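#struct-help
A.M.: can someone run this one for me? Single chain, 109 residues.
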Amino acid sequence: MLKERNVVTVILLSIVTCGIYALYWTYVTMDALDKEGQASNMPVIAQFLLLFVYVGYILFGINADANINAIKEKKGVATADNKVLWLILGLVFPIALIALIQNEINQLV
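D.P.: on it. Structure tokens below:
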């Protein structure tokens, strides 16, 4: 189930816990998006394990975009293709990717 969270709180907790909360948030969000959108191209546990090889946030951004757009289509909301932006952020600045994805989830919930 998608959960509304304060974006600033997610970022601050990620920084204060040295990334541990970011890992927790990422896994929980991957799982929720996969269950709601069902548009992911790989299992959640595989995506999560790839986070430790650095390419995980790139895949997370691509799969999150697909799942968020699938959820938006189900709800009748206009979709947007953010794959390129989220791919770049996943590679360069993952904390911004987390903030943008949580913001999209907050708008859906």
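A.M.: thanks! The chain has a mean pLDDT of 89.
D.P.: also worth noting: The helical segments are 7-16, 20-37, 44-50, 56-75, 83-92, 94-108.
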